[in-house]
């Protein structure tokens, strides 16, 4: 099942993972990320510990290719798995087991990778990557959405559509954005709608929360609402 894109923004250091599939609640089992550490997606016959232990390895200084070798080497089920991972300096690595359901495969580029299985064909991952690279002037969330939308237009999951997710880690211990569509006939349009809603209130509100460099944040309610109002005005 599934195709996904895992990326690091070289300008900001933010990490993003976006996934779409004909499977329920893909956002609950595939994407993993941690600010200043890395990001990953585990799919096909998912092994959650690829994501959990992979991030631990990256945090301990193991580069992404080394983490992938350690994880797959210790797993007897590796030929049924698909996994890709990127570290804090943009090194990436991917594994597609030989027993993943066709079409399956992955592609790596600078600071980004795309992987998928049970797809309509290789054009899905190549169009996903092309769209991401064609929109480098856009914010990371928009780049990832356009990438998934291009992959979907190219055929996507050959079984159909059901769920999708978008996760961004941008410097804090908590995610900047974590939105999911768990069960929907058109998950990608719904994911875009949720992202647009997040931009109008949720993201400006979240920008006022306590941060590593500011453990108090903005707690004056009037200032919080002013930040939200200014963000909304900028969108019109």
Entry keywords:
alpha+beta, Glutamine Phosphoribosylpyrophosphate, subunit 1, domain 1, 236 residues, 10 strands, globular, 6 helices, 6-stranded antiparallel β-sheet
Describe how the helices and strands are arranged:
Blueprint (H helix, E strand, L loop, with lengths): L2 E6 L6 E7 L9 E4 L3 E7 L3 H12 L4 H10 L7 E7 L4 E5 L8 E5 L2 E5 L6 H12 L5 H14 L9 E7 L7 E5 L5 H20 L14 H15 L1
Antiparallel strand pairs: 1-2, 1-8, 2-9, 3-4, 4-5, 5-6, 7-8, 9-10
Helix pairs in contact: 1-2, 3-4, 4-5, 5-6
Protein architecture, described:
There is one protein chain. The chain is an alpha+beta fold. The chain has one domain: Glutamine Phosphoribosylpyrophosphate, subunit 1, domain 1 (4-Layer Sandwich), CATH 3.60.20.10. Helix content is 35%, strand content 25%. It is built from six helices and ten strands; from the N terminus they run ββββααββββααββαα. The protein has a six-stranded antiparallel sheet with strand order 7-8-1-2-9-10, with helices on one face. A four-stranded antiparallel sheet has the order 3-4-5-6, covered by helices on one side. A hairpin with a 3-residue loop joins strand 3 and strand 4. The longest helix has 20 residues. The chain is globular and about 55 Å long. The model has no long low-confidence stretch (mean pLDDT 96).
Strand order within the widest sheet?
7-8-1-2-9-10
CATH homolog superfamily: Aminohydrolase, N-terminal nucleophile (Ntn) domain
Beta-strand level of the residues, as a percent range?
15-25%
CATH topology, which one?
Glutamine Phosphoribosylpyrophosphate, subunit 1, domain 1
* Structural classification: alpha+beta
Number of strands: 10
> Rounded to an integer, what's the Rg over CA atoms?
18 Å
Question: What is the CATH architecture annotation?
Answer: 4-Layer Sandwich
Intertermini distance: 38 Å
What is the number of domains? 1
Q: Helical stretch count? A: 6
Low-confidence stretches: none
